[in-house]
């Protein structure tokens, strides 16, 4: 059996959140499928008893076959349905392929560029997560193997003609290669790379039950670039505390991103398992104490 | 140090859900405060590293000092604000005192009867969970030490004058002494004990990520008595998958329980940390796949 420091007695135990070390999730392991260290990170894939195949980067669960749609659908469809007519989409990270699979469900989308730093993640997803990685060869999809921060700086800069309608940052947490994605300079690069009615979304790496102060500061960082910054969440049972925060921003301050600007057409609706227009708006509604810290103070 | 079969190497590991044994939550233990077997159940109290004191019954986390308000507020205020003028309230279970603490925040409430089977839970909560058990001596509160099922059958029956505006079932899961609270006969007893505009709520013991089929059947059982049965949820990080389902029913079929009938007054509002009118409605909004199974099929 392939060994991994987080697996013992047939159970995987997630590395606790640095900001919140007193809790941990365990998943029962049926078979370890792969373990290696790529140029960028520690990569583990295992078959779990209840959640299908699981992808783990640097000790943190990234996705499982059973619940991945809750994350992929919300990080894709909240910004895409907040835009009236999104045609040109940029995805930073997302090497498992789940986000681009969701993006190409929109018939209005004309092109999707995926920028992933780690080729190994794409290759392993194609092997072990076939339902997530199904869109890599889609005719509208273009894959760039490079650092997302550098890509934005060099290719999609202030004077570039490469401007996007929606930019989705589907990164891992800030402790690994994704650290730069949580800094002010990155929000500025995204701002510059968006069209004037563009929308961006990024995973917040925390939720209201973990480090709320970190989240508050991240929102402040975002608001220093995008005045129209909102927080929503998606419920994913294999993420710490069962939920993950998402930061959604609109370059145009007059757009209310908590309300969908379009509804799924019949064809799109048939392809969606989690997202619907009601949950779009409900996902921005927070308990009073968290709302006060994130949005009022 | 006091021993408990679920604690090893300084970590508490929750007994996995019978319906879903492949995942488990762990909490770091600072000190075991109490372990005993009462007449009814195994009772553990420990001080955790991040969640304050934790109450565990039969191996399942019931509440922690850090996140208990998410459960107590939603199971109390969703039914109470769904009622225009609730005066007479019955709480079945809830021996930790958290629900009655919330109920007496409503100035319109005139009396609260708490029916708890296990005296030990009340005594231990008064000792180790002082912020939850603060309302036991409130002048509007009456505590009955008996089985809730029997109480309803004998005291609050069909021809009794003891009818309630709101009945809250704050029980443990159906595998222990609370088993009867998940049966059709119990829903009928509650129906009989409610006034004609009465509202009831009960914890569903599952959520949409666990045994959705069990939840669907529980909803069917409830709908065979209360045609107006709805599902909502609250987000509690120390419950499995980070959320818990609640079944809410109105005896009057014309009332829309997904919309508050009253809003918190200024005094009440200052006492609430989780509940607000927006989250009341948002908590009934489900992802498409779960909504289809619970509410459409």
Automatic annotation (TrEMBL), chains A, B:
Record has Transferase as a keyword: yes
Q: Which terms in the GO cellular component ontology are assigned?
A: cytosol
Q: Does the keyword RNA-binding apply?
A: no
Please give one Pfam family short name. Answer: Spermine_synth
What are the alphabetically sorted keywords of the record?
Polyamine biosynthesis, Transferase
Active-site positions, per UniProt?
170
GO BP annotations listed: pantothenate biosynthetic process; spermidine biosynthetic process; spermine biosynthetic process
HAMAP family the UniProt entry points to: Spermidine_synth (MF_00198)
- Protein name, as recorded: PABS domain-containing protein
